[in-house]
Design brief:
The complex is a heterotrimer of chains A (about 575), B (about 300) and C (about 300). Chain A has helices at about 5-10, 15-40, 45-55, 60-70, 100-105, 155-165, 215-220, 285-290, 305-310, 345-350, 355-360, 395-400, 430-445, 460-465, 480-485, 505-515, 520-535; strands at about 80-85, 110-115, 120, 125-130, 135-140, 180-185, 190-195, 240-245, 250-255, 275-280, 300, 315-320, 325-330, 365-370, 405, 415, 420, 420-425, 450-455, 470-475, 540-550, 555, 575. Chain A is of the alpha+beta class and about 575 residues long. In chain A, the strands form 6 sheets. In chain A, strands 1, 8, 9, 10, 11, 12, 13, 14, 20 and 21 form a 10-stranded mixed sheet that branches. In chain A, strands 4-5-7-6 form a 4-stranded antiparallel sheet, covered by helices on one side. In chain A, strands 15-16-17 form a 3-stranded antiparallel sheet, with no helix packed on it. In chain A, a hairpin with a 5-residue loop joins strand 15 and strand 16. In chain C, about 75% of the residues lie in helices and about 0% in strands. Chain C contains 13 helices and no strands. Classes of the chains: A alpha+beta (about 575), B mainly alpha (about 300), C mainly alpha (about 300). Chains in contact: A-B, A-C, B-C. Chains B and C meet through helix 1, helix 6, helix 7, helix 8 and helix 10 of B and helix 6, helix 7, helix 11 and helix 13 of C.
Chain lengths: ~575, ~300, ~300
């Protein structure tokens, strides 16, 4: 399957209704023409024509694609991209949030994921793993430099990775790098990483924006100012030029980019476009309008209520894939007075929520119910999880009864003088609030009085721990690593985890996952965690939303791969 | 007059100082610590402590206030915790946009309210007067965020005449300006009408007319000038109202102005930014009051007798 | 208390009772003639009744429970008015907009009445104290009035939303903290002029306690301004509650507040599902215009001196 084919399939999934109709129309005309010719020719032609018309929907968008891309890539132009969050200060370690679009355009990592979620070398030329699995050697590419002009070699890369692994950097990826013992540069331009135990999963915790390779000299010099001064220590195809928080972030093409070696990049040299401007559009209500009015060329995450309208717009292309994450609800396991220490109570609450209804309404069908925390598109997804938290109000009620929580006079369940009434902080975004309102309603019908307070301080509240639980939207490129924080025994520095959960089977599964020496072990571990979590419910995944990308027809090559979620800007070009 | 001016100045400075104290302490007792919001929440505890030390958040609050005052007098308005950008730069960048919006709002307010107010007064009790006053009642009755939504719905979406959000050319400015000006037009128009009616009943008008001056010249050259005096002095007070409206307008139309920046920084617990903008707005309001008082006392010397109370 | 003091207290302004009753009658006659006040009063009354119905709904059961259907699915959401069993249609979560608007009006009216009462009480007490105790107390109170009057309520509310979590507390605190000043000014003014009257001077000279003078002579004078200003403050509070909730700083979901409903519905405007905004929006406008009109009418009737005071 060629790259162009892959793109077509990606687009084919979401081609607009009108485009489909016109494509079907032209396909019909084509078939009729063939049939006419066939009449005078030979008898097999009819069968051919049938075969042509019977061709499924896959090639349907083809006329559109062929029609739009006759000239091939041209250079120049600024891509204006709407971004649903506000861009953060581009700090390679201590960034509050790693912006998946802008970050990799400026900072590169040792690895990158391809369309099959395999890790390919990006800054590294390749790597070797010792037989005991305890030491990895990354051979660095020759001749690469940072935007600052400093060479990218074993020393500078090791220095960068050592900062990533250092709590004093102000980041948190060191939490995921627990098995990393030492990172050293060896004379043959190789970076050697030693582990305390085999760690087959290392690439998945080293291929994201919190683990980029950067010029440590510049970073040490700027620290908190890094990302605000219009300079950067990255090595990607673009350089940071301007950052205005709450407004926009701009990058310009780096003419000296030595080129990508990733096979799925058609363009291996410097980028086509002159630059990219990411415009913050945090208000869901106006996000899509910005694109429709032509203020931007591309958009990440329109409001779900707008997706259908955008799909109906022939000037736009909508790309939908499954995001790596979920909206979920955590219950503080230490709140025994609410029964949250009892797995039956947690499972009952989970079963009282009609996830499909929430997908259909709040997300307008753009998403999938999350019965487990691993999205169905993930290669580690285990279908065994779906049975546990299926919507079942009767079973939920009997589980709560069995746990000693019976319905009180006001319709709220009670047990030994305690009422099952609690308040959770939630993120103040539109979808979160909608999800919380829907969940509140379903729980109310189960006799559980759940309230919520939208607040910006959810994460801080969770770490401080003096709450009954929380609503949160989890996003991480790998959902098993991405849930360590929320469920694994002692994850936050010798203390706890987001849910104050301590479930032996789940903890053991995570340990095996981190210590896996082979892919088979990793798969087995992932299955164990998923099933144990589905049964014991350390937290309650609710919905995995779709990740929606929209661009106008002038933009080409802007195609996020499912495993990466975000597009690379290497191949992007804009029609003049 | 000079004594009054001096007394008002001293008083204004005292009030600004008191306001800074109130604002500082109010924001510092906020729950939710900035290092969780602004710093990577999963960062190591020691790092968060280092951050608090660096920001001086561990000092006693009175010391923090002292440091803050000292910094301000040295001309250092602090740096955003969130973005590490100097607050001065942020205020300049976002303030510029707000200034454009407010200037457009003020311009529209006066260029509509004054002529309409005069016409309503001159054509008193006619259908023109009633229509104008009806619109004024509507302008005061429709909450500005509802007006904004209705304009977005009708002009932005149904008719598709104007863009509904963001900052761009002059077109982007039209809807926000209308919303910003609507209530001001209604208020000013009513004041203008009352003030004009007052003038039209004065003796000098009859004298001028008796001398053969045309009706329109009497109105536009003489009555208007006198009628405008109280309006202009009161218009300084309209500044406070406009500041209030910008919060809604900038939010709805996604106008990258300073009010939106304030809302965000407050919710993000970005103390330095929130503190400075709150203080800036408060000082603007207090100064507007000061100007209004002085201006009004020039128009109506009785005010000076009435020690402090504003009329 | 001596008889003399009493006499001084009771004798001065001539026959207040009779005059006041007479005034009331005259006022009612004026009211009947003042079309504005009648229309405004009518609209306001309707909204108060709807509001009471809304409060009853909230009181009898948990409000959110009433409207979100257990059978939540894509068929019940964003229904247009007059198309199904929901007369005014449904919102994005399938909740009946009529029910939510009624409850929302209840929330508005309830908050408006409570906050207005609080505002009037603060204004009355501080204004009276400033007028009758004078001296440095008056200086301080007047200074605070001077700064507070006209200060943008939203600015205070935004600052306070950093202190409290976003929620109704912010509305309840920020509005009276600013609005009281306008009323206190009027009260102080009335008080100052009353203090200069001979009968009050005489009463004070005879040692009649201030609170008696205030109760007997001052409070009755405040009835008209209280009614007029109260009628003005009610729509002001309604608008601020709406605006703050619209900004996400006031009433929080799932509590139905008209401003919040408009904010939640906003993102559906572009799809043509405008009723989620227009239903609460128009209700809010009608309610505000109704109270404003009533306020104008009452001012004309009760106290022409308050013209232009807001």
């Amino acid at each position: 399957m060629s790259l162009e084919d892959r793109r077509r399939t990606l687009r084919g999934r979401s081609v607009s209704r009108r485009a489909l109709l016109s494509a079907a129309g032209s396909a019909g005309v084509g078939a009729a023409g063939l049939a006419l010719v066939g009449c005078g020719d030979d008898d097999d032609a009819d069968a051919d024509a049938v075969a042509e018309t019977a061709e499924p929907a896959a090639p349907a968008p083809e006329p559109e694609v062929v029609a739009e891309a006759p000239a091939g890539p041209v250079s120049g132009g600024i891509l204006r991209e709407g971004y649903s969050r506000g861009s953060e200060r581009m700090d390679p370690i201590a960034a509050l949030w790693w912006d998946g679009s802008s970050f990799p355009a400026v900072h590169e990592t040792l690895f990158a994921l391809d369309e099959n979620a395999e890790n390919l070398p990006l800054l590294a030329a390749g790597w070797e793993i010792s037989d005991d699995g305890l030491s990895w050697n990354f051979q660095m590419r020759d001749g690469l430099t940072f935007h600052t002009g400093k060479p990218i070699n074993a020393e500078t890369v090791a220095a960068s990775l050592n900062w990533t692994n250092n709590p004093e950097g102000g980041g948190f990826v060191f939490l995921f790098w627990g098995p990393v013992e030492s990172i050293t540069a060896t004379p043959d331009n190789t970076v050697r990483i030693d582990f305390s135990h085999p760690f087959i999963g290392f690439p998945t915790v080293a291929n994201n924006g919190y683990a980029t390779v950067f010029d440590t000299e510049l970073w040490e010099q700027l620290r908190g100012d890094y990302g605000t001064t219009g300079e950067d220590g990255g090595s990607g195809p673009f350089t940071l030029t301007e950052y205005v928080p709450g407004s926009h972030l701009e990058v310009a093409r780096w003419a000296d980019y030595q080129g990508s070696t990733l096979p799925f990049h058609q363009n291996q040299g410097p980028a086509y476009i002159d630059g990219i401007r990411w415009v913050d559009v945090p208000e869901a209500a106006t996000r899509a309008a910005e694109l429709e009015e032509g203020n931007i060329d591309a958009l990440h995450a329109p409001a779900f209520s707008d997706v259908q309208r955008l799909k109906d717009n022939p000037d736009l292309v909508v790309i939908e894939n499954v995001t790596w994450g979920h909206y979920f609800m955590g219950l503080n396991h230490e709140r025994a007075n609410l029964g949250f220490n009892d797995p039956r109570v947690r499972l009952a609450i989970s079963k009282a929520i009609n996830r499909q209804a929430i997908v259909d309404t709040v997300f307008f069908g753009s998403g999938e119910p999350a019965y487990g925390f691993v999205p169905t598109a993930d290669k580690y997804y285990d279908a065994g999880v779906v049975d546990f938290s299926q919507y079942d109000p009767e079973t939920a009620a009997s589980l709560l009864d069995a746990a000693g929580w019976s319905i009180g006079s006001d319709g709220i369940r009670e047990s030994g003088g305690d009422r099952m009434s609690f308040t959770l902080p939630s993120e103040p975004a539109d979808e979160e609030t909608q999800v919380a309102q829907a969940v509140q309603e379903f729980l109310r019908d189960a006799g559980v009085d759940m309230n919520f307070t939208p607040t910006e301080t959810v994460f801080g509240d969770i770490i401080e721990g003096d709450i009954d639980g929380y609503f949160f939207n989890n996003l991480w490129h790998d959902m098993i690593d991405g849930t360590l924080f929320w469920a694994k025994g002692e994850f936050i520095g010798g203390c706890c985890n987001g849910a104050r959960a301590n479930i032996p089977e789940v903890n053991e599964g995570y340990d095996k996952w981190i210590m896996a020496a082979t892919e088979e072990e990793r798969e087995a571990a992932s299955r164990q965690i998923q099933l144990a979590a589905a049964e014991q419910v350390p937290f309650l995944p609710i919905v995995t939303p779709a990740n929606v990308w929209v661009h106008n027809q002038r933009v080409h090559g802007w195609d996020p791969l499912q495993p990466n979620l975000y597009p690379f800007y290497q191949d992007v070009w804009i029609e003049a | 007059m000079l004594r009054y001016l001096l007394w008002r100045s001293v008083y204004t400075v005292a009030v600004i100082f008191a306001a800074s104290l109130v604002i500082f302490f109010t924001l510092r007792i906020s729950p939710g610590t900035p290092e969780f919001i602004i710093h990577q929440p999963m960062a190591a505890e020691e790092e968060r402590q280092r951050f608090r030390e660096e920001q001086g958040l561990n000092d006693p609050i009175i010391v923090q206030y002292g440091n803050f005052l000292g910094d301000v007098f040295r001309g250092d308005l602090g740096t955003s915790i969130d973005s590490n950008i100097p607050v001065v730069d942020l205020i300049a960048e976002f303030g510029k946009n707000s200034a454009i919006l407010v200037a457009a709002g003020v311009l529209v307010t006066f260029s509509i309210a004054i002529p309409l107010g005069v016409i309503a007064a001159v054509k008193r009790n006619s259908w023109i007067d009633q229509t104008i006053m009806g619109f004024a009642a509507l302008g005061m009755g429709i909450p500005n965020f509802i007006l904004a939504l209705f304009l977005i719905l009708v002009i932005g979406i149904e008719l598709d005449w104007l863009p509904i959000s963001g900052k761009g050319g002059i077109k982007h400015l039209i809807l926000p300006t209308i919303v910003l000006a609507a209530e001001g037009v209604a208020v000013m128009l009513r004041l203008m009408r009352a003030s004009m009616l007052d003038q039209l009943q004065q003796d000098y008008i009859r004298t001028l007319r008796a001398k053969g001056l045309s009706r329109w010249r009497t109105i536009w050259q003489h009555a208007l000038r006198n009628a405008l005096l109280p309006i202009i002095s009161l218009s300084a007070l309209q500044v406070a109202a406009l500041i209030g409206y910008t919060f809604v307008v900038e939010t709805i139309f996604r106008w990258p102005g300073i009010s939106r920046l304030l809302i965000e920084s407050i919710l993000q617990r970005d103390y330095p930014v929130a503190l400075m903008i709150t203080l800036l707005f408060t000082i603007a309001v207090i100064l507007a009051n000061f100007v209004a008082n002085i201006a009004y006392s020039l128009v109506d010397p009785r005010i000076r007798q009435e020690t402090m109370l504003r009329v | 208390m001596s008889a003399l003091q009493d006499a001084a207290l009771w004798h001065e302004p001539p026959a207040p009772e009779q005059t006041r009753r007479h005034q009331l009658h005259a006022g009612l006659r004026l009211l009947a003639r003042n079309r504005l006040a009648l229309i405004g009063g009518g609209i306001s009354l309707v909204f108060v009744l709807i509001g009471i119905a809304g409060i009853v709904i909230i009181g009898f059961d948990r409000f959110h429970d009433l409207y979100l259907d257990q059978t939540l699915d894509s068929a019940v959401i964003l229904r247009a008015p007059f198309t199904g069993e929901n007369v005014l249609g449904t919102d994005a979560l399938g909740r009946d907009l009529l029910a939510r608007t009624v409850a929302g009006i209840g929330v508005s009216i309830m908050l408006a009445l409570a906050i207005t009462a609080l505002t009037l009480i603060i204004g009355m007490v501080l204004g009276t104290v400033a007028a009758f105790y004078g001296g440095w107390i008056d200086v301080v109170i007047s200074a605070v009035i001077d700064v507070t009057w006209g200060f943008p309520i939203i600015l205070l509310a935004v600052a306070l939303s950093g202190v409290f979590d976003r929620g109704i507390e912010v509305v309840i605190l920020s509005v009276p903290l600013i609005l009281w000043a306008g009323f206190a000014r009027i009260v102080r003014g009335e008080g100052l002029s009353l203090r200069e009257r001979d009968f009050v001077k005489a009463a004070r000279a005879m040692g009649v306690p201030d609170w008696k003078i205030i109760l007997r002579h001052f409070v009755p004078n405040l009835v008209a301004p209280t009614i007029v200003m109260g009628t003005y403050y009610i729509p002001v509070v309604i608008v601020f509650e709406g605006a703050l909730s619209f900004l996400g700083l006031g009433t929080q979901p799932p509590t139905p507040s008209l401003g919040l409903m408009a904010a939640e519905g906003r993102q559906h405007l572009l799809n043509g599902d405008h009723w989620v905004v227009t239903v609460p929006g128009v209700s809010l406008v009608l309610m505000v215009v109704g109270f404003n009109t009533l306020g104008d009418g009452l001012r004309d009737i009760l106290d022409p001196r308050l013209r232009g005071v807001r």
